[in-house]
Design the sequence.
């Protein structure tokens, strides 16, 4: 494992540093280079894995060689010719940082954030994935691509495994494929989330906030419970928010400063917006709304900055059209695969959702989005109106920060970010601060297009406007009030962090148990499951396959697929979508399936029970494990 | 007028003292509403018990 880990770090460093140095040479601004480097690194990873996967060559050596070859080209073509300038800019930045002064509140926020990131890294290293969505579909998608060395429609009974967008899952796969152990899978999004927070800081600075206020504004986003929790989880809501922040920062930071970076600014911004927008849409379907918003922001900013620049408008039209074409091309490359796959398999790019526009049914799916997510609406809010739901959830009336439906935006949003956003919105309208209004419009449009927007984790991007507003207002408050509001931000941040210290669904003895375990295979997901969902059945499979890995199949209504792989993905998991009993029996036989887990309430149970080749190994509630007898 | 790229803009108070005080008061009231919920204490107590358990496990008591 350690050799693989070293390989992962070296390859990732070669890619990231190459892009960072390239954009430092092109833009001569460190924060911009950091954000561009993170975006381009993710894009390179996603595209190489996707292309190699579609070619059936998704093997660690092939992926490593391909990415190192691309990184070499970047270093030779973009970095080497500008090396002296790059070193100079980096030195200037270090000098500037040494002389930068922050107030106490900002310093406390930075130290607290660093501490919780380190704690999250520590616990993520030892603890296996434990949350519902990760075990049900995010991680099974990554593990399947790894085992099959190819990317194709996964014929799973789970519609989420079959139809979900895959960019986030490819980033998770990247963190496992060289290491051959899933210890890093839960922190696959951490670098992007941290960079997204830097982008919020950068946005606040671009809009006029001081350093300390920009840090405190970014703290509204950073210490939201949803952000803290998803730093070390496979849920992708915080990743989406980070991508939106990065896209917005690139436009606002780059386009008004065209004279500093020459005519290439529009093209660099186009690369950033195309990448951020493409990844937004490639991570989850409703991310496409933010992608469109980023393109609108780009077009507006490009036109507005040209009006204030040199030369006639007509002569500048061609680069804008060209850069728009580049955005569309990059964006589609990063997001089109799941849409095409879904059209080819279900005739609906947004499968499994039934998509209608008013009376017009655009795409026929299994159910409306509301029906899919309706059953997850907690009883506490089910009878409330829209506004009442928001206000109820934003107060976070839950004892656990891990309840991300009845909480997730943090106390900083409710007490500071929300009033600041309302005040700043009014101020921006009065002052005609067009860009501020466009940023707000983009985020509100994203929230409005989100199914179940009362669910806090789905609307994490709105925190960006709360953070920006907070930063901009802090600078305009009289000193005593500024200090008081800063104090409130710090207290609420500490409270969020305190709630996030005990890891999800983990007792202190569980943590000690996995830390002291001598074998990586002992840190298994089933030990953290709720008993209702077949914990004993999954634990039996885990124990049974420790010494001798098995080929395992599963039936309909088996909630979790990921635990079947084992923490080092030792078991081969076969996805079956049978047409009937004969098909089921024949596939079990021809696939060499040794273990089958089924739900008693599905036909899969009867079919396996009447198959002479299998016997019941363990029953746990609705879940039954069969093992092959001959 | 473009409103981005304004790093050098001088600080300007939102009016004078009254708007600042109203905003500060609103923040304190909302923070109070958030903090007064019994769930805050539950969450904090859970963390304290969890850390106590962890310390006890580590110290072997």
Sequence:
């Amino acid at each position: 494992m350690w050799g693989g880990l070293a390989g992962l770090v070296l390859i990732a460093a070669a890619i990231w540093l190459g892009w960072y140095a390239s954009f430092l040479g092109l833009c001569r601004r460190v924060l911009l280079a950091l954000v561009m480097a993170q975006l381009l690194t993710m894009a390179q990873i996603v595209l190489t894995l996707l292309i190699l996967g579609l070619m059936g060559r998704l093997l660690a050596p092939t992926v490593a060689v391909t990415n190192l070859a691309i990184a070499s080209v970047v270093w030779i073509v973009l970095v080497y010719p500008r090396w002296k300038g790059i070193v100079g800019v980096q030195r200037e930045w270090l000098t500037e940082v040494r002389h930068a002064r922050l107030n106490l509140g900002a310093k406390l926020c930075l130290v607290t954030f660093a501490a919780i990131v380190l704690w999250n890294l520590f616990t993520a290293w030892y603890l296996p994935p434990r949350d519902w969505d990760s075990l049900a579909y995010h991680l099974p998608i990554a593990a399947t691509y790894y085992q099959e060395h190819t990317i194709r429609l996964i014929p799973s009974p789970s519609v989420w495994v079959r139809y979900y967008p895959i960019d986030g899952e490819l980033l998770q796969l990247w963190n496992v494929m060289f290491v051959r152990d899933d210890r890093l899978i839960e922190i696959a999004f951490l670098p992007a989330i941290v960079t997204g927070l830097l982008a919020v800081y950068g946005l606040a600075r671009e809009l006029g906030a001081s350093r300390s206020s920009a840090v405190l504004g970014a703290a509204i986003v950073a210490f939201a419970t949803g952000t803290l929790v998803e730093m070390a989880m496979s849920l992708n809501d915080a990743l989406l928010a980070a991508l939106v922040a990065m896209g917005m920062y690139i436009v606002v930071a780059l386009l008004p400063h065209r004279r500093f970076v020459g005519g290439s600014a529009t093209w660099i911004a186009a690369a950033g917006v195309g990448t951020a927008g493409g990844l937004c849409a490639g991570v989850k379907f409703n991310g496409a709304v933010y992608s469109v918003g980023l393109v609108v922001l780009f077009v507006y900013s490009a036109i507005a900055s040209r009006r204030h620049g040199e030369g006639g408008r007509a002569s500048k039209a061609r680069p804008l059209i060209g850069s728009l074409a580049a955005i569309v091309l990059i964006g589609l490359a990063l997001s089109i695969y799941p849409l095409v796959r879904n059209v080819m398999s279900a005739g609906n790019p947004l499968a499994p959702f039934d998509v209608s526009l008013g009376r017009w049914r655009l795409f026929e799916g299994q159910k409306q989005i509301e029906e899919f997510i309706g059953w997850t609406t907690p009883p506490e809010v089910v009878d409330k109106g829209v506004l009442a739901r928001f206000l109820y959830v934003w107060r976070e009336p839950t004892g656990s920060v891990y309840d991300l439906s009845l909480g997730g935006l943090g106390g900083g949003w409710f007490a500071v970010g929300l009033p600041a956003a309302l005040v700043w919105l009014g101020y921006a309208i009065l002052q005609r601060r067009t860009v501020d209004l466009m940023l707000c419009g983009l985020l509100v449009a994203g929230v409005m297009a989100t199914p179940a927007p009362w669910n806090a984790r789905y609307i994490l991007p709105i925190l960006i406007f709360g953070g920006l507003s907070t930063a901009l207002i802090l600078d305009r408050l009289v000193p005593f009030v500024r200090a008081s509001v800063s104090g409130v931000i710090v207290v609420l941040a500490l409270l969020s962090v305190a709630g996030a210290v005990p890891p999800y669904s983990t007792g202190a003895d569980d943590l000690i148990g996995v830390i002291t375990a001598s074998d990586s295979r002992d840190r298994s997901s089933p030990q953290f499951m709720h008993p209702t969902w077949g914990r004993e059945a999954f634990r039996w499979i885990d124990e049974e396959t420790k010494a001798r890995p098995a080929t395992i199949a599963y039936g309909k209504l088996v909630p979790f697929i990921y635990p079947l792989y084992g923490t080092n993905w030792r078991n081969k998991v076969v996805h079956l979508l049978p047409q009937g009993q004969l098909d089921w029996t024949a596939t079990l036989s021809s696939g060499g399936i040794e273990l089958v887990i089924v739900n008693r309430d599905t036909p899969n149970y009867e079919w396996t029970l009447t198959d002479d080749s299998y016997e019941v190994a363990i029953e746990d509630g609705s879940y039954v494990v069969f093992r092959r007898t001959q | 007028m473009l409103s981005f790229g304004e790093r050098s803009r001088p600080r300007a108070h939102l009016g004078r003292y009254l708007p600042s005080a109203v905003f500060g008061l609103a923040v304190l009231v909302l923070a109070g509403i958030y903090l007064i919920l019994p769930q805050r204490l539950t969450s904090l107590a859970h963390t304290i018990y969890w850390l106590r358990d962890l310390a006890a496990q580590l110290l072997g008591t």
